Each structure stands twice: as structure tokens, then as C-alpha cells.
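Quick one:
INPUT:
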């Protein structure tokens, strides 16, 4: 029996770019029926269930070290819990395209987190200059000089913080969990399951204080149900948000995290992190083409600066013999 060829890391890299680039559009659709807390927590919890099923099918054991699980709680906070809560919250105030641009700040935060968490890894001056240039691009996007017509400053700040969380989280993984990854599903599943445990507490706390908004922690908010009406109109109105949330969870969180770990294992963090360059491009294109969102000249110019800075940060340093 001939074994089917394994999927190459290049294919997984492209798949991650498309899946996570589309996630900002799907978040916008899911928010039509769910609260931001429900979108973020549902994405991680259902994604965790997906990975748990895969673990059971493949018979893959989870890590047993208490030290590893303690570090996973910290990394899950920055890789799963915070960004998956903040991006939906930010998208209640800014467009999905602008949220995708906020994700482009991940390499900038990675450099700063490396300085703090991995001080022995010396960074070249050009990378530090690129970080400063990138933050200038963020300022241009926010248009602080404009009195009207600029992006909502709070909403944009939220998505920038969300994108920065990834840089902190993956640097933490590099610093404290680099020797704990033994391949396969174990580490990505443990990462998402740690986030799912945190999210379960978050969504339960939200529901206990907002029981007037949703019948159950996982049900669409009552205002969306009332607006949907009854019968076929309910399915037509609530179907796309529910489907978007399920896709975000099963594919965008469960399967995509497995593919991302595979890419990092195949080519390392340096090349694997360049997926950040393609995600905001996909997010902007989908926001403009599907949702008819529009970006001003300042957002486009600032995005170009941030993206160029991210590419400069990701370039390998030249080494002399």
C-alpha cells in the first residue's frame, strides 16, 4: 500500500494565510448574532473540542509536566485568550480590514518581547529602526491630526494590542517551551485547550452578569434573535453568523494551529512568522471586496509602512565568516 504524500509546509503556510486572513471577515459576520465575548470564547472552546477529538482518534498523549502546563497557561493567555477576545471587541468599532492591519503589528511586538524575554539574543540596529518606523506607520493609520473621519481611536488601539499579543505569546513559547514540543498534535492541542479552559471561565462570568442578553452562554443574543423573526427568516439571518463562528473555531483555531506548529517545525520561527505579512493583505482584500469597506489614504499609507517594517524585521541577518 502506497502512503499518500504528506502536505508540504508551503501548502500549509498558504492555507494559514488564507484562513487567518479571512478570520476578520468571519468575525464581523459572527458579531451580527453574538457578543464579542461569545465569538472569542466560542472560537477557542470549540477549537479545543476539535483538537481533543483528534487527540482521541490518533491516540496522542498530552504533556504531563506541571511546569509545561504552567507555562502553557501564560502563553495561551497571549496567543489565544486575549487576542481572540480583543479582535471581536475591536471590530465592533472598526472595519474588518482595519482589524487585519492591526494584526500586522505582531512582528513589531515580537522584537520588543525578544528584548525583554530573550536578552541573550542580540538584535541588529536595523531591526530596532524598523520597529520605530513601524510604530510611526501605526500613528499614520490612526490619523491623530484629523478631527473627523479618522478610525475610531479606541477600536484601533484594541486591535493593535490584540495583534501585539501574538508577538509576546510566541516569544514566550520560544523562551520557555522550546524544548517541550515533541511534534505532532500534543503541543498545539495543549495550547488551545489551555486557552479553552480560560475562555470557559470568561464566557461563564460574562453570561452570569449579562443574562438579560442571552438565554445561554452559547446562544445568540436576544436582540439578534428578535430581529431575525421566526421560521425561515430566523435561519436566513442567524445561519451565516453561526456558520462563521463554527468555521472560525474548527478550521481557524483547531486545524490552523496544528498547521502553524508544523510550519514552525519545518522551517523555524524566522520563516514561519512571515505568515504575518500575508494575513492583513487577505483581510483587507476580503473586507473591501465582500463587505464593501473603504480605507482612506492614511490607512493605506500607514499599512504600507507597517508591512515594510515587518518584512525588514523578518529578514535574516547577514553573518560574516
Amino acid at each position: 500500500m502506497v502512503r499518500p504524500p504528506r502536505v508540504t509546509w508551503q501548502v500549509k503556510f498558504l492555507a494559514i494565510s488564507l484562513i487567518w486572513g479571512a478570520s476578520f471577515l468571519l468575525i464581523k459576520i459572527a458579531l451580527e448574532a453574538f457578543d464579542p465575548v461569545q465569538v472569542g470564547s466560542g472560537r477557542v472552546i470549540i477549537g479545543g473540542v476539535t483538537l481533543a477529538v483528534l487527540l482521541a482518534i490518533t491516540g496522542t498523549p498530552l504533556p504531563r509536566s506541571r511546569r509545561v502546563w504552567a507555562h502553557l497557561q501564560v502563553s495561551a493567555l497571549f496567543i489565544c485568550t486575549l487576542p481572540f477576545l480583543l479582535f471581536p471587541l475591536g471590530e465592533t468599532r472598526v472595519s474588518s480590514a482595519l482589524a487585519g492591519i492591526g494584526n500586522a503589528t505582531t512582528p513589531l511586538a515580537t522584537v520588543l518581547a525578544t528584548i525583554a524575554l530573550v536578552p541573550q539574543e542580540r538584535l541588529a540596529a536595523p531591526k530596532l529602526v524598523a520597529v520605530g518606523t513601524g510604530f510611526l506607520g501605526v500613528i499614520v493609520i490612526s490619523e491623530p491630526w484629523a478631527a473627523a473621519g479618522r478610525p475610531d481611536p479606541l477600536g484601533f488601539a484594541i486591535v493593535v494590542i490584540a495583534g501585539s499579543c501574538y508577538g509576546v505569546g510566541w516569544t514566550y513559547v520560544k523562551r520557555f517551551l522550546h524544548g517541550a514540543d515533541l511534534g505532532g498534535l500534543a503541543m498545539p492541542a495543549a495550547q488551545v485547550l489551555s486557552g479553552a479552559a480560560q475562555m470557559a471561565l470568561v464566557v461563564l462570568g460574562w453570561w452570569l452578569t449579562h443574562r438579560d442578553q442571552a438565554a445561554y452562554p452559547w446562544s445568540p443574543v436576544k436582540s439578534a434573535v428578535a430581529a431575525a423573526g421566526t421560521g425561515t427568516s430566523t435561519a436566513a439571518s442567524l445561519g451565516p453568523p453561526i456558520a462563521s463562528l463554527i468555521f472560525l473555531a474548527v478550521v481557524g483555531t483547531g486545524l490552523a494551529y496544528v498547521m502553524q506548529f508544523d510550519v514552525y517545525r519545518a522551517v523555524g520561527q524566522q520563516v514561519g512568522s512571515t505568515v504575518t505579512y500575508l494575513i492583513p493583505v487577505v483581510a483587507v482584500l476580503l473586507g473591501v471586496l465582500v463587505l464593501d469597506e473603504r480605507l482612506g489614504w492614511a490607512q493605506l499609507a500607514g499599512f504600507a509602512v507597517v508591512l515594510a517594517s515587518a518584512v525588514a524585521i523578518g529578514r535574516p541577518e547577514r553573518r560574516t565568516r
